[in-house]
Amino acid sequence: MVEENEGLKAATISVLDKIQGARGLPESSISQLANRMLKHDKLGDVNWLTNALSEERKRIDTLRAKAKKHGYEPFINVGPKAFDYIKDQYAPWVLPFMASRLKSPEDIQQDWAIRFADTIDALGKSACEQSNDILEFVISSHYWEDSKRARDDFQLTQQKKAKNTKSGKDILPILKDFSCTPCPAKLELTFKLSSVPKLTLVGTHKVFCLDVGSHIVTVAVKPKVFKRMEDANEQWGQWIAVITGMMGDKTAKGFILERVGVSCFEKKPKAEKTSTQLKSK
Fold first, then answer.
1. At 259, phi and psi to the nearest 5?
2. From the candidate CATH numbers 1.10.150, 1.10.3470, 2.40.50, 3.30.470, the one assigned to the domain spanning 188-266
3. pTM score of the predicted model
């Protein structure tokens, strides 16, 4: 049965190759159309075949136009990312060699292209040029199995780039030298702490410092404002102080916080789940 289906598919491909609307399409397109014709029993449906060929022609023309525009033709199914990866990772002769020696470069898919490029780069230009059957020569090489590593490296690289794009890290190098017309705004800072800081009395103000890692922030408040934190510490088992302000003058290790505001809140512990609640889940 398998042999019969394969024979029917081969016959269908042979018929498609002779149809004018199918001429110029990649072999993979013809093979996919043949599969669809057999699967949906459309061998004698001229209208279906005409429409299917028209749609596939538009799809391929779009891929070709995109590849030409972005400079990765004739590898229309490889895509710009994999094309650039091969271009950056391997010798300059690799891509032109693949374009000239492979029977149908338009049929090559992304992962296969990377494996092929990795293998011929390892084999060397001279050995590849002397081969009469480059496809057999490459796939039978012991480097072919090793080339899976290159495919996996590419996929991992793309995953990292996608993750950086989602988090915004990919634009950080650009932002360092970025210039634009600024819009007037106020910089307000917020700090949170849950313990009374050690203070120094300076004149009529109580002064303390906050360590935020990259800077030491110096804060000066009136005694009644500082007392809010002392009261919170006495009255509540758990509490949090929210200190707001604006960046002031620079100091040796950071800056002075100006226009300071202090608000304290009780921090209530989360209720523990009872055995009844646990059982209900």
1. 50, 55
2. 2.40.50
3. 0.54
